[in-house]
TrEMBL record:
Residues annotated as domain UCH catalytic: 2-225
Site (Important for enzyme activity): 180
GO CC term, one of those recorded: cytoplasm
This protein's record includes keyword 4Fe-4S: no
Keywords, alphabetical: Hydrolase, Protease, Thiol protease, Ubl conjugation pathway
Lineage, highest ranks first: Eukaryota, Metazoa, Ecdysozoa, Arthropoda, Hexapoda
Signal peptide: none
Purpose of the protein: Ubiquitin-protein hydrolase is involved both in the processing of ubiquitin precursors and of ubiquitinated proteins. This enzyme is a thiol protease that recognizes and hydrolyzes a peptide bond at the C-terminal glycine of ubiquitin.
Species annotation: Agrilus planipennis
Protein name: Ubiquitin carboxyl-terminal hydrolase
Catalysed reactions, semicolon-separated: Thiol-dependent hydrolysis of ester, thioester, amide, peptide and isopeptide bonds formed by the C-terminal Gly of ubiquitin (a 76-residue protein attached to proteins as an intracellular targeting signal)
InterPro entries: Papain-like_cys_pep_sf, Peptidase_C12_UCH, Peptidase_C12_UCH_sf, UCH_AS
EC number: 3.4.19.12
Length: 228
């Protein structure tokens, strides 16, 4: 089973959110640089950060080793973190979007509908159960995602091989979390705060870029207060 891949494009993500019933008080914006001066141009507050990066054999090996190290050393995960597994090919953009929204329900208002009811019904589920719920009952959500994917600037097909992957970063209970639906668990990236979320996530994004010095196909977006 595969969905159409979403572009890393704020316009696409914002239309997706609005179609799902998310209030327009919040919107995605491009993050054009990861240094302090450039980050100052991003509207505040920032609720989440999404990174699109090249997903190749080198990364897969790194991720495998990192997960094994975390399993051995252990980590502290807040019970308030909403994490879901990704079981559908090309759904990483949708999963990252859900991670960004679901971990900020105390700040984001969602109108009644399929998305809100799906989120509410999944709050007490395990990550696997949430992923299965999206796979089995996400028909309406997948149709929206596929429709928006077709509106993008790149021709897409559910059978095309995608070499890039989305992850989300959120701050919960004083820690920065990296949420990747293809991993077994959230990753605690260290202390953070709502005020420092963007800067702390930018540091992790830089680490991704430094591991791939010959790659240029990275994009970063922030879910931030809409500029009126």
């Amino acid at each position: 089973m595969a969905w159409l891949p979403l572009e890393s494009n704020p316009d696409v993500m914002n239309k997706f959110m609005q179609t799902l019933g998310v209030e327009d008080k919040w919107s995605f914006v491009d993050v054009y640089g990861l240094d302090g001066e450039t980050l100052q141009w991003v509207p505040r507050p920032v609720l989440a950060v999404m990174l699109l990066f090249p997903c190749n054999d080198k990364f897969e090996e790194f991720a495998k080793e990192e997960c094994e190290q975390i399993k051995q050393k252990g980590q502290t995960i807040s019970p308030t973190v909403y994490f879901m597994k990704q079981f559908v090919s090309n759904a990483c953009g949708t999963v990252a979007l859900i991670h960004s929204i679901a971990n900020n329900l105390d700040k984001i208002n969602i109108s009644d509908g399929l998305f809100k009811s799906t989120l509410e019904s999944s709050i007490n589920m395990t990550p696997d159960e949430r992923g299965t719920l999206l796979t089995n009952t996400g028909g309406g959500i997948s149709e929206i995602a596929d429709s928006l994917a077709k509106e993008g600037q790149t021709e897409v097909s559910p059978n095309m091989r995608v070499y890039h992957h989305f992850v989300a970063f959120v701050c919960k209970d004083g820690s920065l979390y990296e949420l990747d639906g293809r991993r077994d668990f959230p990753i605690n990236r260290g202390p953070s705060s709502p005020e420092k979320l963007l800067e702390d996530a930018a540091k992790i994004c830089k680490e991704y870029i430094e591991r791939e010095p010959n790659e240029v196909s990275f994009t970063v977006m922030a879910l931030a207060a809409s500029e009126k």
